[in-house]
Amino acid sequence: MEAVETASRSTSRSLRRVGILYDERMCRHHTPDDEPHPENPNRIRAIWNKLQSAGISQRCEVLSAKEAEDKYILSVHGKSHVDLIRNISSQQYNSRRNRIASKLNSIYLNEGSSEAAYLAAGSVIEVAKRVAKGELDSAFAIVRPPGHHAEHDEAMGFCLFNNVAIATNFLLNEKELGINKILIVDWDVHHGNGTQKTFWKDPRVLFFSVHRHEFGSFYPSNDDGDYTMIGEGPGAGYNINVPWENGRCGDADYLAVWDHILIPVAKQFNPDMILISAGFDAAVGDPLGGCCVTPYGYAMLLRKLMDFARGKIVLALEGGYNLASISNSALACMEVLLDEKIVTGSTEAYPFESTWRVIQVVRQELKAFWSVLADEVPTKLISQKAPIPVKKILISSCDSEAEDVEELLQEVIRPLSTLRVDEDCRVLAESASVSWRSDLSNIDIWYATFGSNMWKPRFLFYIEGGQVDGMQKLCSGSMDKRPPKEILWKIFPHRLFFGRESTRTWGLGGVAFLHPESKNEDIVHMCLYRITLEQFNDVLHQENISSYDMSSPLFDLTSLDCVKEKGSINLEAVKKGWYHNVVYLGMERDIPILTMTCDLSDIENFKSGKVPLHAPSEDYANTLVKGLVEGGQLSEEEAVSYIKEAAAKPL
Ligand code: Q9C
Ligand code: ZN
């Protein structure tokens, strides 16, 4: 820090003393073989480079990282967890490291992980201490690995130590700092489950988290992030969750939550200091978040918090996976901390109807603890709502269709009838989808087919779009219309069978399914198409007709990691489709092989007869035979008996 106290810099330095911490050593935590992963070293490099080239870091006090001492980490984590994270990077763990990581939920580990974890935690302590002492007005710690998912005895969700929770306990325990009440604002798109648990019964810490929840289906996929989780004992009322019911939330939604929940409560709580779990994965363009907060939005959210705790604010990076989005969002926040730009402007968009509903239930739940929440939200405000944007309505159906087409039409048509086109959000949703598309268009996978898609002309409709001869339905095709780069055939130890009584596309008769589990006595012929992960998403979407808007991918890089680890993954967003279960079948020339089929609960329903097993129609069986014969796999006789056998054998 002293090194940057040069005369030229101090003249251009802001009146506000703002700290910024970056340390390249935190880049040494990465996937073992540098496989692609959203939580990668370039995240913090991108932010740092952006702040340097925008001249921001030059106006700040630049700090470097310090490793946290065990005694501080132990205020949040158990001894066995701390021991594990300390030792995990040592040579003795070389052979066990990957196995340990694979048993954890969304975690990778390498030789650099221990040091990075200690530095991330120590860095947030370091900046928080300086802000508490008044050496700095505010600060931003550009750290990784992130922290807010890490629990007492568990690393998860890309988090090893809970950096913000550790710094919070540090501040509270160093009595001479005079910090007795801390507000933690967690605006990462995911729920801060680890932080919530740490301070569950602690009234000195008001934990506020706004996150995608979708009734418990969004990561970390449980009820911890529900609005009913308000803390316990002396901590009751000091835990506030704002769970989004849907993605696509943007500036208007976040600002409404600030104005009607967080800001009034912050006023009443009157914190001595504010720590922000500043993930930028709710930013427009994020591949995991699916929300659309702009840099201007983040600036507003932060600006509104600067009125409390005499501006003593620390931002600690959590998630955020689009390099451009996180850099621009961080830059906007730094400009607010430096207080050199007045944040002006307004959002044209209105909050979603669901946003007002959530605001109302949260206020209801907490009004006994916070008198500022007692009044009803004025109906004049609530009536200003945006419809759910429906970008494209896709009623195509191929082997599959929604369980109940009526229900789907209801879902799609109802919001349309009240549609007041919201240009802003539409544009935002589109740029979000553009960014995941370009990210996933560079990654190849093998899409392994066992049904009518084995016949190449039939499969090409999912890519090129159009209507195949004799088929009832039109396919929209993929956005990227390049044909498969390669085609090859393989045999797998899986069971092929035919189920359902009739389908819209093929009429009476069953259609092909693959048992998601392998069994050695069974074989299935599969045709593998080498396509991009972006195209695979479009195929998934068409195979599982749904109203999902594709502003974020159904199956992203994290899902890919997850399916490699777990073997299969159920896609919540298309759970009504028959092929919503993505199964990993191994690697072929370093490229993963994926297929899509039903899940194990569907298998149970087929077994019990709740859903019938059924031989395929002649048309459908012929398409499969054509696929196998034209693909050079079987003679016509062999293909016919292969299908017959699969249709006749009991499950
Ligand atoms: N289908 C942070 O943003 N996703 N962590 C697993 C499994 C894990 C995100 C998806 C997302 C963790 C700090
Ligand atoms: Zn996150």
Automatic annotation (TrEMBL):
Q: Does the record's keyword annotation contain Iron?
A: no
Q: The Histone deacetylase domain covers which part of the protein?
A: 37-336
Transmembrane annotation, as ranges: none
Q: Required cofactors, per record?
A: Zn(2+)
Which keywords fit this entry according to its UniProt record?
A: Chromatin regulator, Repressor
Q: Tell me the domain of life.
A: Eukaryota
Query: InterPro entries annotated for this entry?
Result: HDACs (IPR000286), His_deacetylse_dom (IPR023801), His_deacetylse_dom_sf (IPR037138), Ureohydrolase_dom_sf (IPR023696)
User: Pfam families, from UniProt?
Assistant: Hist_deacetyl
Q: Which PANTHER family match?
A: HISTONE DEACETYLASE 18-RELATED, HISTONE DEACETYLASE HDAC1-RELATED
Q: List the protein's name.
A: Histone deacetylase 5-like isoform X2
Q: Which organism is this entry from?
A: Rhodamnia argentea
For this protein's source organism, the top of the classification is:
Eukaryota, Viridiplantae, Streptophyta, Embryophyta, Tracheophyta
